Amino acid sequence: MPGCIIGGVTYTSGTSETTAPCEVCQPAQNAAAWTPAVSGTSCGGGGTCNGGACTYSAYTVGRDPVGLAFDGTNIWTANLGSETVTKLVASTGAVVGTYTVGSAPVGTAPQAIAFDGMNIWVANGDDPGTVTKLLASTGAIVGAYSVGASPQGLVYDGTNMWVAGNTGTVTKLLATSGAVVGTYTVSADPVMTFDGTNVWVLSNAGSSPGTLTKFLASTGAVVGTYSVNVTDGAGVAMTFDGTNLWVSITGDDFGVVAKVLASTGATVGSYEGGGGGITFDGTNIWVVDGEDPDTVAKLLPNTGATVGTYSVGSSPSAILFAGANIWVANEGGSSVTKIAD
Description:
mainly beta, 0% helix, four-stranded antiparallel β-sheet, Methylamine Dehydrogenase, Chain H
């Protein structure tokens, strides 16, 4: 059977490109380059081919979604532009609620969203510097709590909600009551993740190296401070894979993912393709690819190799693993994309 020779490599007719399943060897059309697959062809993850790109289910939410959370049944989005949060059934994408969080004294400009096992928490990026707590079952507001100025990140440690403010303050709240139980000073624009025992905070955005601080979640004690090369960019998101921290870094004309060994704080890898939200699905790292517009990439944790790229909506920002699927918030498209993992 005739095949293709592409980039010096021979492929059998009908073979798909490794990271782009909608590009196929079709020697009758072009034996020296990939050819777009027939529109409607399945391309995995619940997607279908369209013009050489794999497209996935998308659902409309509020304007400018920038944050995602999963409550075990529903996906929640923080919609910066419309100052709302949207609740969708994860299995169907059906919208079952839209809730306003932008009226005083709650705050405006929701930036991040998290689930504590019962409630949804929203970080309101504009002053007066608050977080809002909503009952996940109904969307009813059950509290609004003052934190540092311009909160932009949330992490739940099983007992406490940690809030990162872009002026360099991290606030620890008791989730049951909203009481402040700790306030910690870092540098500007911190991003956070939780490893099961410790809360990690990366700061010093815009300079290199960045500072990665490890806080014991139970006490707030600093148990380690490490340097991460952010290449004159800024760390914008982190995730934990059970052994390593993965840091998504963006710059003016690049995106990088750094891999940090959690036990030592040593950087053990740096890979192209980061720049936006990042998540771990139990097997692979998924990251919004700042170098390839409107796509997300899937990386192997052991090597950092890209094993898949997926077209999503306009200007993807946050990304989340929710049980069986990857969800992406498309800030420029007022939508979320669902990819079957």
